[in-house]
Design brief:
It is found in: Secreted, Extracellular space, Apoplast. The protein is mainly beta. The protein has 4 helices and 33 strands. The strands form 7 sheets. The protein has a 6-stranded mixed sheet, with no helix packed on it. Strands 11, 13, 16, 18, 19 and 20 form a 6-stranded mixed sheet that branches.
Length: 548
């Protein structure tokens, strides 16, 4: 591979949407940020320069970072953030991955606007395992806020209540024609009849899982999270924050006398504030040169999208995703397991601090946890603390591998819904084969949680509704061609079982990719050693990492 050099200047820039002008955080003044393009096997070198008052770091979401765990990017996990007027050069190689990923800021809610596409092309002499597209187009979902998202999260933390929702969803930065004062702010995809387009879908929204559909067009799913899948056709897509999906769009053979909306809106099962609106872009056919009526305004056809709580559509879509699992692209599913973990994921509450009133459930503060532990980020980076043996007061390695008190997770919640706080990690010897069951809980309503694991792809070997049954459910696990991803929605009112091989030494964050749930503590860390012994280390971090 070759080296691809980029400079990302993190700076403010004015954008106007919904008739509101705001200065938002951008990469090089662009929102979404510039595309990062590389071939499989290439080295990527990105100099990130911080021109804003906030600290910042960039995460290369889904890039495995084999041998470069310090380049992963989550602030206070693998590095201290880059301070104002400072810079840091991320340097990593992309190996064994091809397709679409995303990068985004990884501190507080700065990823609200700091995000962009990572496009991984096949190696020079290799082609796609599907029809070569006429054109490739990133379609990036995001959110627009008429106020500063940082003010929203700090208010939510102060009051203990849920955050205000964004004012619009966006496609490539545009809310589209279904919002007030937005018809000009519409992304248009111009296409020719009878061609195949590769749409690289990315959900970079902060807090919403989304359905996506294009009116009168069927899509063929060919890749998810930079792994090829067995192609299948669908009229509607489901995509959580942090997930990416490549689809083929075959345009109609002849010029149609209509334009078509492509639209996205949320899947949501919990309670609380919700933006149920629809973002849309226009799929517009270029008229043939001999076409008479091309000055006429063509009718615009809208797609139908699933209802907001369509849990079965989500489950069916997720089940259709299967690895190619052929000789060229094998699915290396761990067949035997060294360690089994069972994690509950869900919302809970913490007591309201004295002399304050809290707007969470019953006057408490909202919280979120894994196995009842709400994770606090330290004020130094875990990776360096671990390497230099400075764990004292930073973190402990006693993260519970099972819930402390098992209960009926999707039934009536137990009385005590309080969670404990801590900075706890699990230590895994090199090459541990891990099975992890993620069980959604109903403590504060049944909700789906898109769980993202840094540093690995995992295989989704099973999923179901209700409580996971360790005696029955493993018999139905798919160990042949399960989907291989970095982010998976833990089903609303159900569970998902994943397997991965801990072959990548480093400190790896795992969290819900709904930003408010991460904020509330639905996060934890894995420490993967470079050898089999507990006294072994993680690779030595370079000395030029930013200081805290
Ligand atoms: Cu895309 Cu830790 O996040």
């Amino acid at each position: 591979g070759i080296a691809r050099h980029y400079t990302f200047n993190i700076k403010h820039h004015n954008f106007t949407r919904l008739c509101t002008t705001r200065s938002v955080l951008t990469v090089n003044g662009q929102w979404p940020g510039p595309r990062l393009v590389a071939r499989e096997g290439d080295r990527v070198v990105v100099k990130v320069v911080n021109h804003i008052p906030n600290n910042v770091s960039i995460h290369w979401h889904g890039v495995r970072q084999l041998g470069t765990p310090w380049a992963d990017g989550p602030s206070y996990v693998t590095q201290c953030p880059i301070q104002t007027n400072q810079s840091y050069i991320y340097n990593f190689t992309i190996s064994g991955q091809r397709g679409t990923l995303l990068y985004h800021a990884h501190i507080s809610w700065l990823r609200a606007y700091i995000y962009g596409a990572i496009i991984i092309l096949p190696r020079k002499n290799e082609s796609y395992p599907f029809q070569k597209p006429h054109k490739e187009v990133p379609i990036i979902f995001g959110e627009w806020y008429n106020v500063d998202p940082e003010a929203i999260v700090s208010q939510a933390l102060q009051t203990g209540g849920g955050p205000n929702v964004s004012d619009a969803f966006t496609i490539n930065g545009f809310p589209g024609p279904l919002y007030n004062c937005s018809s000009k702010d519409t992304y248009k995809l111009k296409v020719k009849p009878g061609k195949t387009y590769l749409l690289r879908l990315i959900n970079a929204a902060l807090n919403e899982e989304l359905f996506f559909s294009i009116a009168n067009h069927t899509l063929t799913v060919v890749e998810a999270d930079a792994v090829y899948v067995k192609p299948f056709e669908t009229d509607e897509l489901f995509i959580t924050p942090g997930q990416t999906t490549n689809v083929l769009l075959k345009t109609k053979p002849d010029f149609p006398n209509a334009s078509f909306l492509m639209a996205a809106r949320p899947y949501f099962t919990g309670r609380g504030a919700i933006d149920n609106s629809t973002t849309a872009a226009i799929l517009e056919y270029e008229p043939p040169s001999n076409h008479k009526s091309h000055t006429k305004q063509l009718p615009l056809i809208k797609p139908s999208l699933p209802p907001i709580n369509a849990t079965n559509i989500v489950a069916n879509f997720t089940r259709k995703l299967r690895s190619l699992a052929n000789s060229k692209f094998p699915a290396n599913v761990p067949q035997a397991v060294d360690r089994k973990f069972f994690f509950t994921v869900g919302l809970g509450t913490n007591p309201c601090p004295q002399n304050t009133t809290c707007q969470g459930p019953n006057g408490t503060k909202f919280s979120a946890s894994v196995n009842n532990v709400s994770f606090n980020l330290p004020s130094v980076a875990l990776l360096q603390s671990y390497f230099f043996g400075q764990s004292n007061g930073v973190y402990t390695t006693d993260f519970p591998t099972n819930p402390l008190v098992p209960f009926n997770y999707t039934g009536t919640p137990p009385n005590n819904t309080m969670v404990s706080n801590g900075t706890k990690a699990v230590v895994l010897p090199f090459n541990t084969s891990v099975e992890l069951v993620l069980q959604g809980t109903s403590i504060l309503g049944i909700e789906s949680h898109p769980l993202h694991l840094h540093g690995f792809n995992f295989f989704i070997v099973g999923q179901g509704f209700g409580n996971y049954d360790p005696n029955k459910d493993p018999a139905n696990f798919n160990l042949n061609d399960p989907a291989e991803r970095n982010t998976i929605g833990v089903p609303s009112g159900g569970w998902v079982a994943i397997r991965f091989l801990a072959d990548n030494p480093g400190v790896w964050f795992m969290h819900c990719h709904l930003e408010i749930h991460t904020t509330w503590g639905l996060k934890m860390a894995w420490i993967v050693l470079d050898g089999p012994q507990p006294n072994q280390k993680v690779p030595p971090p370079p000395s030029d990492l930013p200081p805290c």
